[in-house]
Amino acid sequence: MTAFSDNISERFMMLAVNIIKLEKQLCKTFSGRHIYGQLFRSGTSAGANFEEAKAGESRADFIHKMQIVLKELLESHYWIRLIAETNYVFKESEALKSLFNETRELANITAKSVFTAKSKIGKKLP
Question: pTM of the predicted model, to two decimals?
């Protein structure tokens, strides 16, 4: 794999780690536990699906898996916004701001990857 995909893999790993670190702050109430559970599932699965996409059996398989990554990132971004709006974690928290920005950036990178891969379908490989 390339240094770029290794860097993205590391970013997905750190996203998952930082989501896990929110557990203590969020799991004090029923609704906080529910929101954390949703964020935990979507945020940690994005990286796992990215790793699967890198090993895609075909371009179509790669695109399909990357679309799943994108969906998980967009869902994670939603839950992070909800956490901020409900003040479960202080809106101005650096950890929350970082998660908000990272999910948005990774979603943009993933969407661009999907777009590029789709644009190459039907074209001959070099």
Answer: 0.89
